[in-house]
Amino acid sequence: MTIFRGRMTIVIENYPEGQVEWLDAENNPENSEEGTRKVPFSREVYIEQDDFREDPPKKYFRLAPGSEVRLKHAYYITCKEVVKDEVGNPIEVRCTYDPESRGGGTPDGRRIQGTLHWVSAPHAIPTEVRSYQSLFNVPDPTGDLEKEINPDSLEILSTAMAEPGLKEAKAGDRFQFLRLGYYCMDSDSKGEHLVFNRTATLKDTWAKVEKKK
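Predicted structure:
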């Protein structure tokens, strides 16, 4: 499943306005027997905010000015223009797509190193995500709670966006959110208000690369 903590808006300039395609996405990349689901694709999508850099470092294979990446299950896109706010912060990336690259390949066989997850902006669902850390900030608490309790043991993100299929989830259902970790739907979810709790993290290869700098 796909969900975003922070997001960058991608507008695909040569994709038909108003068109929506329903693409096949595997439920578990490591086990094809778990089947597939349908995800909507449109002219405007969200990607993870960290998946775009206007001035990328070396070995950065995500989206940057002039670069081409693959949107997982969808198409290759190329960054053409960066739209900024009044203080110079990027708020939108305008791209073009290759219509012949649907599903992750092209007739010319060119290879793309970067693959990004995404969600269709018009179909995205506002979602609350709760990430739990260690309750204590020391390995062996002595009982001095004022000093040893971790004030950041719970992070609540109320502005996350998720793919629409999660509306069908029930309390207790478990999911792997791409590149984020494993999550369980909380019983606090009511109607359109979805709440997910993190149960386990995933390794972030790029975060390790950045720490080495």
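Summary: The chain has two helices and 15 strands.
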